[in-house]
Design a protein that fits this description.
The chain contains 3 helices and 31 strands. The chain has helices at about 10-20, 260-270, 335-340, and strands spanning about 55-60, 65-70, 80, 85-90, 95, 105-110, 115-120, 125-130, 150, 155-160, 165-170, 175-180, 190-195, 200, 205-215, 215, 220-225, 230-240, 245-250, 255-260, 280-285, 290-295, 305-310, 315-320, 345-350, 355-360, 370-375, 375-385, 390-395, 400-405, 410-415.
Length: about 425
Amino acid sequence: MNRTSPFRSSRLASAALALSLLAGCGDPEPTPGTPGTPGDTDNPGIPTTGPVYALTTQVITADEPTSYVVLTNKVDQAATLSLDNAISIPGRALGVGIAKSGSIFVGQDEGSKLTRYTLSSEGTLQENGSVSFAGYAVKSIGEYQNNFQFVSPTKAYYFDGDSSQIIVWNPTDLSVTKAISIEGLSIAGSSVIFSPSPVRRDNQVIMPVGWRAGATVTKVAGVVSIDTRTDTATLVKDDRCGYVHSSVLGGDGQVYLATEVYGAAAHRVAPNNNPAPCLLKFNPDTLQFDPAFYKDLNSLAGGAATGALLPGPQGTTYVRVLNDTIPPETSFSNARILASGAGWEWWKVDTTTWTATKQDAFPATTGSTFLYEAENQILYSEFANGSTATTLHLLGDNGKPTVTTQGLTFSFLQLR
């Protein structure tokens, strides 16, 4: 299996290469540098009551990349978070867990272990055990936060593309139950990237899959469906388009999947080598793609490069649309740079007519979009130029900017 993971190397050159390859999913290119001194910070201490959030951010410098788990009690107003009291972790790390459970599991790019940290009554994180997947050929914990799917306090899944399997483990007693093989996941010459936005239904996880051969999108769409009662995994493929990597659950009970921003950028840069961005429909009950449903994703926004399909508050749906006048001309020769750069606007989708309307109040940001839930609000991420900082925005408030932290924040969890 040849999977491109962004969390594999601890050296700057390898980290830059890995992230540049992940930028196929819209992530930014890291720029070496020394973390700057934060401005006015707003996380000197965590109150003993009220919400607490953990952001796991990766700071890439001229030496070893270092990750930090930083706590804050505010995500609805502008603030710059200090890393002074954060937990420091060598390499590139992800923080995952069950929302409001009081614990976060941190995994690193080089290794197969998850370390559990539990929020103390004093508002600090204390190490509280670990679990290892090494016995199941897992060599790296990485890719996206949603590679981890938590079914209950005693059952969770980890999607590992390297080994073409799903690890079933127990977050409470820190044991590994078994591994589920994903037959047919490997495509010769292509790497596989699981989606950052799977769909959850009762007793089911629906995980979109994208494949890429180097910088070129492989013309295959895929979905891995898991029955959480039986741990049965089914892979379904479709050959009408590629990098169908983002998904929403429609009001009709069907799952709609769209080509992610990188796929849209790749087609914009090299249309003869990359399939056109598309919109597909998947039946989660029959586990079949609808052969009669296919839409050119760019048609939703009048032909402009369009990528991703994102669920918003109150049942809204959005896509990201490229404004060609914003990126520098040089961006249009490199899909990774184009997808990772500014210029991607927010458009709201009418899922009845499948047309989209530009949201003028939203700022145009980088194409990379990670969605996080916090106290009944949806946040999305924006990476600064040079990948030196990450700012969260409120999706339900016209993209209002809130907290900013140094580095690349790929994971966010409400602890309390």
